[in-house]
Design brief:
Elements (H helix, E strand, L loop, with lengths): L1 E6 L11 E8 L2 E8 L4 E9 L8 H10 L9 E6 L4 E5 L8 H8 L6 E8 L4 E8 H10 L6 E2 L1 H12 L6 E6 L3 E8 L2 E9 L3 H15 L7 E5 L6 H6 L6 E3 L7 E2 L12 H5 L5
Parallel strand pairs: 2-5, 4-15, 5-9, 10-13, 13-14
Antiparallel strand pairs: 1-4, 2-3, 3-4, 6-8, 7-8, 10-11, 11-12
Helix pairs in contact: 1-3
Length: 280
């Protein structure tokens, strides 16, 4: 199991009532951050990832949570992010809470071990309808019974919408997870495209990405923004750079700052975990 920990020396385990906790968990790993709400500064990040080609079970994730000294504390606020590749957007005027499963199965296949959830987002005025593994949903309910989980695209769409304000031309954002990536395209502050693509290799990402570019008439001169599990000069970056010159990595931003201990990590990798504090 791979483990990362960053913490500021001002972090006080006895003062968590002044902190906001954000937790992200899925079979791909567990991560959490702590925001000092008095100073609006992130002071801790812990990440536990399974070994290569392996996944965490809900049982293993629960064990990590129970063994962690900070996760058992009481906080001013708790946010819970459950990433999933399977989601659809439903315009708010058309949304009926009793029809979540109908909306989901119009475009996606529901597995027996999944639970269908929904989140309201303000921009665009819509609901995210998504599935998560049942055992992880039940674990979330046991550990944080009063917290309703959010899909990872809720903070992602919120952050991308914020970053694209006033941007001239199409704003293209690619968020990369372990086995899927999200592609968001905004133009004149409006969401024009949002979808998830499963991939096995870099060639798959390039295929889906540039087919969307072609179908939407997006010039390769336009900037492209990345977040998630990619970094400068890796295989994805190097291959995209053959076609697009202006490549940017977009990290979290909002009414918060980061302790100096975060200076040496790629913040864009954890954009959803950090940005969830911006969500309503």
């Amino acid at each position: 199991m791979a483990f990362l920990e960053l913490f500021d020396e001002t972090l006080d385990i006895n003062s968590t009532e002044n902190y906001e906790l954000s937790v992200q968990m899925s079979p791909d790993g567990l991560a959490f951050s702590i925001l000092d709400t008095i100073r609006n500064k992130y002071v801790l990040l812990r990440v536990a990832d399974p070994d290569d080609n392996k996944y965490f079970t809900a049982e293993k994730t629960g064990e990590i949570i129970r063994d962690d000294d900070f996760l058992a504390k009481r906080y001013k606020k708790v946010n819970l992010v459950l990433p999933s590749s399977k989601f659809t957007l439903v315009p708010a005027p058309l949304f009926d809470p009793g029809k979540k499963e109908e909306y989901f199965t119009l475009n996606l296949i529901r597995e027996d071990n999944e639970v269908i959830l929904s989140n309201k987002i303000p921009e665009p005025d819509a609901y995210i309808v998504f599935s998560v593994p049942r055992l992880f949903f039940e674990l979330a309910g046991q550990v944080y019974p009063s917290i309703y989980p959010v899909h990872h695209t809720k903070p992602l769409i919120n952050q991308v919408a914020y970053n694209s304000r006033g941007f001239t031309g199409p704003y293209v954002h690619v968020h990369v997870e372990r086995e899927f990536f999200n592609l968001l395209i905004l133009d004149h502050d409006a969401l024009k495209f949002s979808n998830t693509f499963n991939y096995r290799n870099i060639t798959d990402i390039l295929y889906y990405l540039f087919n969307v570019y072609k179908s939407m008439g997006i010039s390769h001169e336009a900037s492209i923004h990345f977040s998630g599990l990619t970094e400068k000069f890796d295989d994805l970056y190097s291959n995209v750079a053959l076609y697009i010159r202006d490549i940017k990595f977009t990290g979290p931003s909002g009414n918060f700052s980061f302790s100096y201990v975060f200076n040496d990590i790629e913040l864009h990798r954890y954009i959803n975990l950090f940005s969830v504090t911006n969500c309503e």
